[in-house]
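Appendix B. Chain record.
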Amino acid sequence: MFFRATLHHTIQLHPQFLGKGIVDTVIQELEKEVEGENIAGVGCIVAVITVPPGGVSMGRVDALTGFVKFRVTYIAVVFRPLQMEVLDAKVQSVSEFGFFAQLGPIEVFVADAHIPDDMDFISDKMIWRNRETGDELAADSIVRLRVLRAKTDVGRTSAVGTIADACLGVIAAE
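Structure tokens predicted for this chain:
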């Protein structure tokens, strides 16, 4: 799910960047530093929407480095999967214990206990195959899964999912 969040971040700039247009420089540096990053308890920052008026503090010189620190308040679009949310993901690797899929910046593990009972693991091909329909789940397949649990740590968001419910499973094979 995508959310709009008000967040804070500290930017350090070398003194050479001080002068006219400093606020624009701080905002550009903010976008470079935070977009695509995972923040614990928040999720993955997709994009900085805006920095509200007064959102960039007065700079403070770090006596040790000479760099200038700015505290920035900004509004961003954040992606965080919710428990029980149904999403599409691309399978990255398959094993007898389940498979890993990529959901944007998030890695999802689906254990064999959360794969339908009518699917068997074929070890020589490294795929899961449905006995009734012949559908195959392999690396690069697109699956529709339900998020059972998600966790956001600093620098990483991971989740556990299932494809053992109605309307879930392989939706495209590559």
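Further analysis of this model is presented in Appendix C.
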